[in-house]
Amino acid sequence: MSPYQQFCDKLYSFAASRLTPSLLNSQYAYAGVLREALVGQGRWLDLGCGHGYFPLWVRERPLDLTSWDSVGVDMDASSIRRHERLRWRVNGDIQHLPFADDSFDLVTANMVIEHVENPPALFSEIGRVLREGGIAIVHTPNVKGYTTVLARMLPESFLGPLAAMLLGRRQEDVYPTFYRANSDGALRRAAAGSSVEVADIRYVESSPQFIRIPPLMVLELAAIRFLRRPAQAHRRVCLLASFTKRTA
């Protein structure tokens, strides 16, 4: 880590402790819901799994998968090849799943739905492969969140370099986005024609994107503090939704 990055991290810790105490990235909220779902045993399908259950920078203790058969599906063969904790790896399209009906007890999509061109088709597939009583969990950006609003204002060609500069992401890990199921209403409409129904949808905050640009980082923390007001919850940056399979 460079001296500049160390300086930014120290400044962030200081500013966040005063403006937004207890602030965590939304990945930790997702991890908490996921751990609850992994109590017991069964088969878990992770859609668009990439090369890990969480981004590499997430400091989360390993998931206990002793009683779970984990399967991952991703279009990026080079990415899924690097996923060390999956039991089974499938290179394929998550909108056309190569599994039998009622195959899984848990289906997850962590920062994936925003990249899907046809969300109703995806939810139909989720409902098809999910067993009765099974759970689906979706973690995705909120289309009304300030980060998504800003990202949609930029040309697609800018997003890769910007993600590399601000977040340290490799440009090849930045994929096209459509945001067709990225609001409460859009998620409900996408699921309406499938055999899954909404159990819970909530807006969650996340850590700042501009941590490497201190003046903007402080402004972003102030914005996050403002969005902690209940009346502003719908503008928080991420959605965390749970679905259950309808009883036949």
Describe the structure.
- This protein has 248 residues and is α/β, with parallel strands linked by helices.
- The chain has one domain: Rossmann fold.
- It is built from 8 helices and 7 strands; from the N terminus they run ααββαββαβαααβαβ.
- It has a 7-stranded mixed sheet with strand order 3-2-1-4-5-7-6, sandwiched between helices.
- α4 links the parallel β4 and β5 (130-141).
- The radius of gyration is 18 Å and the shape is globular.
- The N and C termini lie far apart (54 Å).
- The model has no long low-confidence stretch (mean pLDDT 91).
Question: How helical, in percent, are the residues?
Answer: 25-40%
Query: Regarding CATH, which class?
Result: Alpha Beta
Topology pattern, helix = H, strand = E: HHEEHEEHEHHHEHE
- For the residues shown, what is the average pLDDT? 91
Q: Given the C-alpha coordinates, what overall shape results?
A: globular
Physical arrangement of strands within the biggest beta sheet: 3-2-1-4-5-7-6
Structurally, the number of domains stands at 1
> Which structural category fits the helices and strands?
alpha/beta
Low-confidence stretches: none
Number of strands: 7
Largest sheet: 7 strands, mixed
